[in-house]
Specification:
Order of helices and strands: HEHEEEEEEEEEEEEHE
Strand content: over 45%
Low-confidence stretches: 15-21
Mean pLDDT: 90
CATH class: Mainly Beta
Structural class: mainly beta
């Protein structure tokens, strides 16, 4: 069904343009403060050694839609999304804090429903598949010991820096492309015949694993080998032999404020 949904929505879009006698093109902009999560079963089971902290990000961009009836349409959004996860935990002789920052270009293809467009207050709903393109990321850990010593480890792109030493990675530790789904439910306020101010709760979910388990730490320039990044060295502790890290799901949710301009097509 995941693979068929984009085809179904694409067919609806083409059908609407081809066969509708008249319709409405809607162009607009949206801004979305959002709560973001990177959920992993091992991280959830770690207890006080690894606690999630509430993490906020934002998304924003442009929206384009075509309503081929008064109540039904399709659209494509182009959104920049800043998201990730904060952590805190305890060490044998200290504490640590950590944060993952992920920046995505998100392209959701949406089937849209709305109530009477002539009403001053309109209810609407959208749902559809979403492509997530990773633009950049950082993965940072700060360990603070009782002695006052502080160690920072940071991963950017394909480099890992710790205690002044930089190691190369064989690949990015997060996947450059994932597929997901987005949905929203909200209300619109008709400011004029052309302008609509809207507020939606919007959420999205990335299918599969956000982490790239194939990434390795390449220590060969320093006389070492290639260690799997996620298996040999999970985020904040050393794993036992034979460790296999579960999949990590990226989830966001928040309230999206939008302003839309309606262009009737005849």
């Amino acid at each position: 069904m995941k693979t068929r949904l984009p085809l179904i929505l694409g067919a609806l879009l083409l059908g609407g343009w081809s066969y509708a006698q008249e319709g409405t093109v809607k162009v607009g902009a949206a801004l979305l403060p959002q709560n973001t999560w990177l959920l992993n079963q091992d991280d959830s089971d770690a207890g006080p050694n690894l606690d999630y902290e509430v993490t906020w990000g934002f998304a924003g961009g442009l929206t384009v839609a075509y309503n081929f009836t008064d109540y039904l349409g399709v659209g494509l959004d182009v959104l920049y999304s800043s998201q990730g996860q904060k952590y805190k935990g305890t060490l044998t002789a200290g504490t640590y804090t950590a944060q993952t920052r992920l920046n995505y270009l998100k392209l959701p293809l949406l089937l849209r429903f709305n109530s009477d467009p002539n009403s001053p207050v309109q209810f609407s709903f959208f749902i559809g598949p979403q492509a997530n393109l990773l633009l950049s990321y950082t993965d940072e850990k700060i360990e603070t010991y009782a002695t006052g010593q502080r160690t920072t480890t940071e991963v950017k792109g394909t480099e890992m820096t710790s205690s002044g030493t930089t190691e190369e990675l064989t690949a990015k530790i997060y996947k450059p492309f994932t597929l997901g789904a987005a949905l929203g439910l909200g209300v619109g306020f008709k400011l004029s015949d052309e302008l609509l101010l809207s507020l939606h709760f919007r959420g999205d979910y990335a299918f599969g694993d956000t982490e790239n388990k194939e990434a390795k730490i390449d220590r060969t320039p320093h006389g070492g080998g290639q260690d799997p990044y996620w298996s040999v060295k999970p985020k904040y502790t050393r794993a036992p032999a034979g460790y296999t890290r579960p999949a990590t799901q990226a989830i966001t949710g928040g309230f999206m404020l939008g302003l839309t301009y309606n262009l009737p097509v005849r």
